[in-house]
Amino acid sequence: MEPFTRKKIIPKKTPIPEQIPAVRRTNFEEVTLGYSIEQALREASRCLQCKEPLCVTGCPVGVPIPRFIKAVHENDLAYAIKIIKEANLLPAVCGRVCPQENQCEKNCTLSKKFDAVAIGRLERFTADWERLQGNGKMPYCAPATAKKVAIIGSGPSGLTCAYDLAKLGHSVTIYEALHEAGGVLVYGIPEFRLPKAIVAREIEILKRMGVTIITNAVIGKIMTIDEIMLEFDACYIGTGAGLPRFMHIPGENLNGVYSANEFLTRINLMRAYRFPEYDSPVRKGDHIIVVGGGNVAMDSARTALRLGAKDVTMVYRRSLSELPARKEEVHHAEEEGIVFELCTNPVRILGNRDGHVSAIECIRMDLCELDASGRKKPKPVPGSEFTIPANIVIIAVGTGANPLITQSSGDIALTKHKYIVADEDTGKTSRPGVYAGGDIVTGAATVISAMGAGRKAAEAMHDYMTNDPARKEKTRV
């Protein structure tokens, strides 16, 4: 085993192989191809092995980053993945979709003068290595307890909470509203960024740990929180924020207008891009407009391009420097030929006599004083209206909290925007034994932040079920 040594600092990240833009814009195969062993060893050698690693403080689930990178550098990949999975059930997922540039890599000491260590790429490499070896080793699970936990939602937050509670020996049942487990990982993120086989493998590990996953189970319809708490000792709500928002402008009811949620769900979960092999069609067009500037908007635009559109235009009301999507995704979109109409806002959608979209009317925006988010506030420029031809318009301006569960459980405190009020450190809600985390608490955020909330809640739920002297045993139905 090679000892960790470094002769000199390598200033730049090791590039990651990718499909060339002209090819990848025509297929749904993964864009980035991952490191080879030689590239991974080179990148791992860049780590400074700081005594006080700030990168770890930037990781919402607390992965011991220097330890696993040291193991990669020493070519002990089995130990590296073991270290990662002490904290993270989904390293193959996080290594692909998490915004490391705003989290662990942002805090990397090396980034003060050079490129940060490519922590996400090394995490992905290590997880992919394990996958290619077979199923990998199962995590140690404590002896079974008599405690039963219900988790509502099988997205990253619910899966992480289930993982930690199962390791502690508790009996865990996940209820998922859709017909496949994975939440936003399967319905929201395109195949070319996150292959669904990778998500399925991670979920299979949970099943092997004894976690029960019940799909097609819409809590709030088939069962209320009251009924769940009669049967289970604790409950975690991790349903995300999947209620689409619209702009409330004329023409949003025309044929050819999609919410990003519907569009991406049809493509990703229902496999519409493989129609008629899969029988869920999606409307196609030559000229597609995507309204918004976040990761969901970027996924929608790059997906639309792969469906065969002649041109795809993103309409965003602020400048490129304020675009909230990941820099890597913006870079890939530019390479693939996505057009950016910046400092621009839609005012109405135009249609033809058949009720189909024909164009979108926009107005130019001027950026002036800072708003509450710290960004420059966009202000319409009078007389600057113009139209862009369009067959399809995809609205990707954010999501809200689905009220189905909370409407059936009136004793759970909500914010004015109908998100669940939960303690930031424990996930405790206003109802004893009921915890919540992820986007249903914070609003739309990142995969890894939702996972962090799931980990915190699992610890608090374990404490509640095993150490709370005031808690009384319930009679189960």
Over the alpha carbons, how many angstroms does the gyration radius reach?
A: 23 Å
Our estimate of the beta-strand percent is 15-25%
CATH homologous superfamily grouping of the largest domain: FAD/NAD(P)-binding domain
Q: In which range does the helix fraction lie? A: 25-40%
Q: By helix and strand content, what is the structural category?
A: alpha/beta
Q: How many domains is the backbone divided into?
A: 3
The third-level CATH topology of the largest domain is: FAD/NAD(P)-binding domain
Describe this structure in words.
It is a single chain. The protein is α/β, with parallel strands linked by helices. The protein has three domains: 21-133, Fumarate Reductase Iron-sulfur Protein, Chain B, domain 2 (Orthogonal Bundle); 148-242 and 401-467, 3-Layer(bba) Sandwich (FAD/NAD(P)-binding domain), CATH 3.50.50.60; 246-397, FAD/NAD(P)-binding domain, CATH 3.50.50.60. It is built from 17 helices and 16 strands. It has helices at residues 21-24, 37-44, 54-57, 65-73, 77-84, 91-97, 119-133, 156-167, 184-187, 196-208, 225-231, 260-268, 295-306, 327-336, 404-407, 439-442, 447-467; strands spanning 148-152, 171-175, 212-214, 234-237, 243-244, 257-259, 287-291, 311-315, 339-341, 344-351, 357-370, 376-380, 386-389, 392-395, 399-400, 434-436. A five-stranded parallel β-sheet has the order 3-2-1-4-16, sandwiched between helices. A hairpin with a 5-residue loop joins strand 11 and strand 12. Helix 4 (65-73) crosses helix 7, helix 5 crosses helix 7 (119-133) and helix 6 runs antiparallel to helix 7 (119-133). The N and C termini lie far apart (56 Å). 47% of the residues are buried. Mean pLDDT is 92; it is low at 472-477.
